[in-house]
Amino acid sequence: MSARGIGPSRATRWVVAVVLIGLFLVPIVSMIEYTTRDGSGGHSLVNWLALFDPANESKYRPIWVGLGNSLVLALVSVAIVLFLLAPTMVLISLRFPGLRRIFEFLVLLPISIPAIVLVVGLAPIYLVIGRTFGTGIWTLAFAYGITVLPFAYRAIQASIDATDMKTLAEAARTLGAGWPTILGRVLAPNLRPGLLAASLISVAVVLGEFTIASLLNRQNLQTALVVVGKQDPYASVILSLLALAFAFVLLVVIGRAGAARRTSKGRS
């Protein structure tokens, strides 16, 4: 039987596409319709404009504080992925390939641990972190760095598997390059799609995380939305839509960056 014979028909693909698009669009359209209700049976942008009204600054201040904290956490988490996880994976791939399975097991382990169990284990550690580094919001990135490991690992490992790391590293070493140069100017550009995808996933996970921040009494975007949502349900839905739009724009930007990279390589 040919490959074409066992594949789905054109009609089946259209049905699947329409169903998937509907699953995404129906909740989003419903959220937009809900946020435009003005309380008099009509629709307007009054709820959207109220969110940015200086007169409501104190009411919505937890949201902006939480958003700022989440962006800081996303930045630190991405730094952990790019400057700790990625170099470690490159090192294991080049020097210690026998450790790959053990490292993979350890990195993927957090995905099987419920967040509540993770917090119970992290609570005593955060007592020490609080005494050593203070209780700044950025310290929560240590926990977030653990939660994003399984997702970031898969993205980076796919790029590593698609790249002849050993040949590139040996060629650079033959030309006299040191390891910082090899990592930054030889291997990193070839791993860019995986690094960009890992960064995007890390940002998305951090912006959507609630359980760890809530149980450790830290304020991020999701905990702030819960607090403000008890007073103004429209605000939490509007911020959720904006967060979704931000993730979509980030995905498009990263996709275009990866496409531009592939185009430049093809021309060269």
TrEMBL record:
It comes from Agromyces atrinae. Keywords: Cell inner membrane, Cell membrane, Membrane, Transmembrane, Transmembrane helix, Transport. Residues 67-254 form the ABC transmembrane type-1 domain. The lineage of its organism: Bacteria, Bacillati, Actinomycetota, Actinomycetes, Micrococcales. The keyword Phosphoprotein does not apply. GO terms for biological process: transmembrane transport. It is a multi-pass membrane protein. Coiled coil: none annotated. This is ABC transporter permease subunit. GO terms for cellular component: plasma membrane. The keyword Transmembrane applies. It comes from the Bacteria. InterPro entries: MetI-like (IPR000515), MetI-like_sf (IPR035906). It is found in: Cell inner membrane; Cell membrane. PANTHER family: INNER MEMBRANE ABC TRANSPORTER PERMEASE PROTEIN YDCV. It holds the Pfam family BPD_transp_1. The chain crosses the membrane at residues 12-32, 71-94, 106-129, 135-156, 195-216, 236-259. Belongs to the binding-protein-dependent transport system permease family.
